[in-house]
C-alpha cells in the first residue's frame, strides 16, 4: 500500500476513535440548550451523557470474551452503527428518541474502539505504536469534546454535534475496507498490572465528570457564558493535558499515574473553593485537572493494554473508562440537582434583597423588579432566568447606577449557585484520590 494512502487511512481511523471517545463529553456544552429544548431536569439531561457511557461500558464488558477474533469486522460494524445512530441523534424528535439513538451510538462505539486497536497496530507496524495512537486519540477526544461541542452548538445548534460526527464515521468505515488485521491469538493475559491500571482508570474517569460535566454546567448555566466562551474556558483542560504529554512519557508509570491523580484531585478542590464567579479562577483550576488527566491516562492506558491479549485487554480498558464515567454521573448529578434547587431559593431571596437595597429611584426600581419577576416566571424550573435584560431595558448602557445595581444583583444570585457546586466537585476529587488506591496496592507490579 502506498505510504500516503496508509497515512490517510491511519488518520481516518484514529479520528473515528477520537470522535467515539469524545462522545462521552461532546454534548456537555449543549446540555443547557437540551435542558430548555426538551424541558427536562438536570438529572434528565445528564442521561444524554449517561446513556451513551452506560451502553459503551456494558457492551464492552459483555464483549470481552469475544473481541479480537475479527477486528476488521468489529470496527466496520461498530462504525456503521455509530454512523447511523449519529444521524438519528441529530434528527431526534424527543428525549426518549435521543436516548435510543445514543444507546445505539454506544454499542457502535464499543465495537469500534475494541476493533480499531488491532487495525491501528497493523497500520503502524507495531503494537506499541498502534496502542500509543489509540490512547492519544482517546485522550484528545475526551478532553477536546466539550469545546468542539460548544463551538458547534453556538454556530449552529445542538443537532450539529451529531451531524458532524457522521462524515468522520463514514471516513473511518471506508478506511476499514483497506486494512486487514489478523485474528488475534486466543490468549488470556489478565495480570495484576491490568487490574490496577483499569481500576485507576475507572476512578479517574469518574473524577473527570467534575471537570467536564460540572464545570460546564457552572460556566454556561450559572455564569451564563455563551457556548463558545464556555468552550474557551473548558479548553484549558485539553491544552494542559497535551502540554504534559512529553513529561508523561519520561516519568516512570507509577510516579506519573499517582502524580496525575493528585493533580486532578487538586484541580477539583480548587474548583470547589472558587472565590468568585470568574473565568480567571476557573481556568487555572481546569488546567490543573487537565495536567493531571494528561499525566495519568496515557501511562495507565499502556499498562491496561497488553500485546498478548490485545483485543480483549483494549475492550476491558474501554469498559473500565466508561463505567467510571457512569459512576461519576450517577453519583454527582443527583447531588447537584438537590443542592442547586436549595441554592436557587436562596438566590431568589438574595435577588429580591439586592433590588430593594439598590440605590435607584423608585421610578426605575419598580419596573426592574416587575421585569425580574416576569423573567423568573418565564424560566423553566431549575433554569436561571436572564437577569440582565430588565437592567438593559432600564438603561444600564448609559446609567452607571443601573449598571452597579445589575452587577450587585448578579453576584447575589451567582454566589450561592456557584457554592452549590462545591459538594459535587468535592466528590469528584474523592474519586481522583481513590484512583491512587489500586496503584499503591499493586505498586510492585507497576514499578
Measured by DSSP, the beta-strand proportion falls in under 5%
Domain module tally: 2
Shape: globular
Largest sheet: none
* Residue runs with pLDDT of under 50 for 5 or more positions: 182-186
CATH class of the largest domain equals Mainly Alpha
Helical percentage: over 70%
CATH architecture type of the largest domain: Up-down Bundle
Mean pLDDT: 81
CATH topology of the largest domain: Growth Hormone, Chain: A
Euclidean distance between termini CA atoms: 40 Å
Task: Give the name of the CATH superfamily of the largest domain.
Answer: MFS general substrate transporter like domains
Structural class: mainly alpha
* Number of separate helices: 20
What string gives the helices and strands in order?
HHHHHHHHHHHHHHHHHHHH
Spell out the blueprint of helices and strands.
Layout: H1 3-22, H2 31-37, H3 42-63, H4 71-91, H5 95-124, H6 127-155, H7 158-176, H8 192-222, H9 227-234, H10 236-243, H11 245-250, H12 253-272, H13 279-304, H14 310-357, H15 362-378, H16 389-393, H17 400-419, H18 422-434, H19 436-441, H20 443-446
Helix pairs in contact: 1-5, 1-6, 1-7, 2-3, 3-5, 3-14, 4-5, 4-7, 5-6, 5-14, 6-7, 6-9, 6-10, 6-13, 8-9, 8-12, 8-13, 8-14, 8-18, 10-13, 12-13, 12-18, 14-17, 14-18
